[in-house]
Amino acid sequence: MPGHVWKHVLDVEPNRHLQQLGEISESDAVLTRTYFSDAHMKAAHKILRWMEQAGMTAYIDAIGNVHGVVEGSNPELGELLVGSHYDTVVDGGKFDGAMGLLLAISAVKAVHLEALKRANKLSMLQWAIDNVSPDEDIDLPIRAVKGLLSGSIRVVGFCDEEGIRFKSTFLGSRAIAGTLLKHNQLAARGADGRTLEEVLATSGGLTGVVVPNPTEAVQALALKPGSVRHYVEFHIEQGPQLEAAGLALGVVSGIAGQTWLAVSVEGVQNHGGTVPMPLRKDPMAAAAEAITAVEGTCLGSSDALGELSVEGEALVCTVGSIKVHPNQVRHENRLTVTDIRSNTSQTWSNLVKAGIMCLGEMAVAGEALVCTVGSIKVHPNQVNIIPKWVNFTVDVRCRREEFRQEVIALAEARIQAVCARRGVNCSVTRTHNAPPVHSDGRLVSKLQEAVRNAQPMIQQLAAAAEDSSSSSSSSSNACSASGGSDSSSCTAGNAGSISSFRSTQSEVPVLLSGAGHDAMAIADITKIGMVFVRCAGGVSHNPAEYVDPRDVAAATAAFATFMEMDVLDWEQHSDDSYKPVS
């Protein structure tokens, strides 16, 4: 098959589709595509059309997932499930979620073309394929590719991973995993006061068809037990490690466990100019110290604040108002309640000292421990008023479940100690808890092999890009599509396109994911594997989010190679031939 055809399917189409999908937004100013919005519906139907052009039977289910299905000739193999989400955060980037989904669609098209070539059935489509315009997509009729693959493939564009509208994540992936009802997510309520169940029953979601019994409809979406062989998701790294290593792709060993804490600090509201500092019950100051204590806990530090002599100076200082952007906890999941209190500050002092001693024995290095305070609310939030209350969130993530629980317990104790010493009331509630998820060892090996096996095609694509000078023009086009040369995504793209840039690689590193992904929900029903794709500066959930077009092409080639191993040449690449990674 001519090289320009592979370049079109593995490079031109996925990169163009990323830009086209990135233009579908609720706002003209920023990219925002939240669940059940008009932009979300428009995106779903565009994705459905791209699936059909790849030779898949496509449909949108009751909750808004977009499915593309290829039925293999050997149903006993079960389905290869792939995909990612197509919703975004508010003021987000074009690549989070969407890239993994669009790569999967292009990879299916590439595998279909390879199958047609092997079966000597390209002749009826050869002219149309060879003469496709750079601005058009290759359209594979379902009848032309039916039955060519041994294994079945299901590509799913998950409707809502971010949880923006209903403050409840993984709605799409939990629906097909059959766990959405278990997590009581039909009762999740949006800012308009309506629950997901009410929206489905009155508006019908993306299909526009009212769902009389949402519970039954959701139950029907669950994939049959044992029908899925394994799940694979490609995703932007959302971190800096691949870029620092000069590598385009890395395989994921697992996803860190996550806990969210909601902290409420209540003091006494009063005038900021008349109450002496020692007589205040200031929740803002207590919250600030508590936040620093949380940071110290996660850094493995036991430092205390130094003392400053201000006696006789009549010094008063008030932080009465605070604003944070984007003021989001980082929506991954939720659960549990803890409210620890003590009658004396001495008790808390002893507890914290004991905690500090324990912390000194904790091996923070290597645990991938990160803690984030991402949202703060203050009342009444005025510059000259000692606040009445301050609420803030804490997001704790870690490789090991046991270690994360130790850190959370110590962080809670330190927060309570600060509040007790300052004479303010404090409560800490665990609003979400998700254990870590581990990738299947054989899938990790298989994905590493797919990346290595894809290197000749990746080199071919890179050479074609150099010959046509498309590397610079692709970056320029991406910048233009995102708002011109002054846009943040253009800046990030240029920053990533350094002189030593290369998409080919001999080493395939194994990384831990600190971010949550739909794979966490799908892990309830099958083995999972993931591949990370390098992103500029490690930036994500941000308009500056950027993946170089050459890396998009490299990832699509690797994905297509994996699918080829999995559904075309499965006899030579069965799971039994791969040893778990230690």
UniProtKB/TrEMBL annotation:
Cofactor: Mn(2+)
One GO MF term attached to the UniProt entry: hydrolase activity, acting on carbon-nitrogen (but not peptide) bonds, in linear amidines
Record keyword rRNA-binding present: no
Alphabetical keyword list: Hydrolase, Manganese, Metal-binding, Purine metabolism
GO BP annotation list: purine nucleobase metabolic process
Name of the molecule in the record: Peptidase M20 dimerisation domain-containing protein
Quaternary structure annotation from Swiss-Prot or TrEMBL: Homodimer.
Coiled coil, from the record: none
Region (Disordered): 462-488
A Pfam family recorded for this sequence: Peptidase_M20
Keyword Metal-binding on entry: yes
Alphabetical list of InterPro entries matching this protein: Amidase_Cbmase, Bact_exopeptidase_dim_dom, Peptidase_M20
